[in-house]
Amino acid sequence: xxxxxxxxxxxxxxxxxxxxxxxxxxxxxxxxxxxxxxxxxxxxxxxxxxxxxxxxxxxxxxxxxxxxxxxxxxxxxxxxxxxxxxxxxxxxxxxxxxxxxxxxxxxxxxxxxxxxxxxxxxxxxxxxxx
Length: 130
Description:
Layout: H1 2-18, H2 22-45, H3 50-59, H4 75-129
């Protein structure tokens, strides 16, 4: 549980830093438009419930092999899904990569801060001995 809390802290700190990045905000906006277009398309074309449409639009962009139980039936939906996945997965992967890099950079800077604090503490200790 402690490991989960520490990991969550790192993730939230990295996301807070990423929120200031204009490219990341642009990617999130683009992803929101893509998800909205997919949700509306599946809602209207397939006749799925709004939540089911959003769920399928979101889950299909994640790089996992989750089974949604929803399968586009119309020919137009199949064509749309192929194009939607090519465009949407690119944006989603860019976001996931940026988040991963932000977490790694946060951990590196955290380690550097810890080393710097140890060095300062060591210098204070050596000055007190003199």
